[in-house]
Description:
By secondary structure, the protein is of the alpha/beta class. The protein has helices at 12-25, 29-40, 78-88, 98-104, 139-181, 198-208, 224-233, 255-260, 277-280, 296-308, 334-340, 345-351, 368-383, 392-400, 406-421, 428-432, 442-452, 456-470, 481-485, 489-499, and strands at 45-52, 57-64, 74-75, 93-96, 117-124, 127-135, 214-217, 242-246, 285-289, 310-311, 320-321, 325-330, 354-357. Helix content is 46%, strand content 13%. Helix 1 (12-25) runs antiparallel to helix 2 and helix 5 (139-181) packs antiparallel against helix 13.
Amino acid sequence: xxxxxxxxxxxxxxxxxxxxxxxxxxxxxxxxxxxxxxxxxxxxxxxxxxxxxxxxxxxxxxxxxxxxxxxxxxxxxxxxxxxxxxxxxxxxxxxxxxxxxxxxxxxxxxxxxxxxxxxxxxxxxxxxxxxxxxxxxxxxxxxxxxxxxxxxxxxxxxxxxxxxxxxxxxxxxxxxxxxxxxxxxxxxxxxxxxxxxxxxxxxxxxxxxxxxxxxxxxxxxxxxxxxxxxxxxxxxxxxxxxxxxxxxxxxxxxxxxxxxxxxxxxxxxxxxxxxxxxxxxxxxxxxxxxxxxxxxxxxxxxxxxxxxxxxxxxxxxxxxxxxxxxxxxxxxxxxxxxxxxxxxxxxxxxxxxxxxxxxxxxxxxxxxxxxxxxxxxxxxxxxxxxxxxxxxxxxxxxxxxxxxxxxxxxxxxxxxxxxxxxxxxxxxxxxxxxxxxxxxxxxxxxxxxxxxxxxxxxxxxxxxxxxxxxxxxxxxxxxxxxxxxxxxxxxxxxxxxxxxxxxxxxxxx
Length: 509
């Protein structure tokens, strides 16, 4: 900040007002002094000396008009400090001459100073902790006026150093955690790509090389947008735009205008021509989230764009052509919507050329530790806290939870745990709203022990086969095993293929 214009010789009250303003504007003591220098330099000399009680030294941390050779650290014993406090007295202000100060506290003031001197005790935490020295005109009145703003400026400096040190420590811990996770950055990869999302990422790699429309299916919070971005990054369109549209948030009367744009004057309030999402995504990828929420009229126009890449703006007469890769996502059962007449069958066939089902978090428990570590780093970065990792008890609690909100809920739980822990730990149990060691009924413990004694695949195979037997081999629909198991039908079929389960043997007759 530039110097604040003031006369060279000013009253102590005017200098105090300037000092308060500078202390409020600048967190660094050096900036505070530079702002004060033009107005104070021709009027007085100033030194702020900071007491290092452990090293028994007084160190000059700021000065105006002091020769370089005089700006030094000086040894200052506890006896000397006691003498200085006695000299300052109850008011914390002393004014006098060089001879008296040198006899009482040798070496405190620079030897080059001449004329009247003043000392002011700078209070930190209610006690005198540092010293302000002034020389020349009205030294006593000036010391009294500048004492409090200089103390505030020094306190700002110490707080700034503390925060900077905390940031450095947090960054060091963050880098250490990234090293443990073998990652370069918080967002450099899809968490679980080699484990619970292995099949999903294999499908992404296959289809990314093409321009085929992709339909991502999965429950709310499973990470559909993350997969869509991964598909875009791996495609030839990676240098182009990636735009996300939440179809469920578009007002019905504005959907056409939002997706395809409008011409000036096409309706009340259309004061100019506006490009829609398809035009803005030209050469890139358009992610239509919650595509099942689109009304039938908008579905017709979307179908035409998917067929030949052309459309008209609202109120326009000429057809526009764009080169856009469409990736859609939904948490709805679109086949059920097609059967109920809420979603066009031809649009379903056009979107679902390459469907990618996402498993819910409860089916990829092995990814929870890596996801929890990822969200811990992200929460620490967002909140400005030191990153903290969940411990073994925390991981056990996280893996035992059912996660109805999937990965999005896990992110919220970890961020809440970081806030509750205030940078010291992750309060996962409190964040989940449970005690660290919840009581388990004896009967349930025995059942859990029996289940735990089986291999995981065997237990899962038995669970799915029981559901198929109850549903007579039916997988989809209101009476299918997928509905009974609360799974996406595509996920269930994939799991059955992996476990070698043949649905046909459960069909009656």
